[in-house]
Design brief:
Layout (H helix, E strand, L loop, with lengths): L1 H24 L2 E7 L3 H15 L2 E7 L1 H9 L6 E3 L4 H8 L9 E6 L1 E5 L11 H4 L5 E4 L5 H12 L3 H4 L3 E4 L2 H10 L4 E5 H4 L6 E4 L8 E7 L7 H10 L2 H9 L6
Parallel strand pairs: 1-2, 1-3, 6-7, 6-8
Antiparallel strand pairs: 3-10, 4-10, 5-8, 5-9
């Protein structure tokens, strides 16, 4: 009886020690995430936590705003941008760990409306004049906004619709304008409407704008963070790529 009790105590003590060791090894990393990638980032972070025990604390916003914050000392350790330009710029100015920049997703632009039938499959609504407001993200801060401007120029519609444009600080705000009815239609990320069966939409052909190649990079503030490095490693995994594709992105 005494022997059994001693064995049980030893087992429980061992399990407790493993739990304490696991908690000690688990870390936390602060991740700046481009607004278009909000939902997949949340899903990836949940899987990352389950697989590694590490926590990723996510902040969402425009890539341009994040770059400015990082350049001014914001304590992010990982940067998931919606473009190539900002991670490259961060790399060139010595804000990143060399050799850690990579493309994690390529996004798709969508012209979307809550109104069924308003947006046709070719985007001809842009020439019809049957709307008062068109929402886009600020092209100076958000790559999806820049892609929207390039698309309007490609279609030779920018000058005509310019007075109707309402600009959001990020793609999230542009989407909110459409969702709330402040704009009848808007250029948003496919990931924002991939599960929305209502409304009407036109998935913009990739030939209408430069590819929305989204890159991630480890910042110098995260150079010694096991959690930050593990997060970027997990972002490259087959499991994470499946989530990324699920939200309408391309992932290689």
């Amino acid at each position: 009886m005494i022997a059994r009790r001693s064995t049980l105590i030893a087992v429980l003590t061992g399990l407790w020690s493993l739990a304490v060791a696991g908690a000690a090894l688990a870390g936390e990393t602060k991740v700046a995430v481009a607004a278009n990638f909000t939902e997949p980032a949340k899903a990836i972070t949940a899987r990352f936590k389950a697989r590694t025990g590490h926590d990723a604390v996510l902040s969402f916003g425009s890539s341009g705003q994040f770059y400015t914050q990082i350049a001014n000392g914001a304590p992010y350790e990982v940067f998931l941008s919606a473009d190539v330009e900002r991670p490259q710029k961060a790399e060139a100015t010595g804000l990143t760990v060399p050799g850690t920049r990579f493309t994690y997703a390529t996004g798709r632009l969508v012209l979307f409306s809550r109104t069924p039938g308003l947006v046709d499959g070719q985007g001809a609504v842009l020439a019809s004049g049957r709307f008062d407001k068109l929402a886009i993200a600020d092209p100076k801060a958000a790559p999806y906004g820049q892609a929207a401007i390039e698309t309007l120029n490609k279609l030779k519609r920018y000058d005509a619709v310019r007075p109707k444009i309402v600009m959001g600080a990020s793609i999230t705000q542009a989407f909110q304008f459409v969702q709330t009815g402040a704009a009848e239609l808007g250029f948003v990320a496919l990931s924002q409407v991939v599960d929305d069966k209502g409304g009407s939409r036109w998935i913009v052909p990739v030939a209408n704008h430069r590819p929305i190649e989204q890159q991630a990079v480890l910042l110098k503030t995260g150079a010694n963070s096991d959690a930050a490095r593990a997060f970027l490693t997990f972002l490259k995994s087959a499991e994470a790529k499946a989530i990324i594709r699920r939200y309408g992105y391309e992932a290689r």
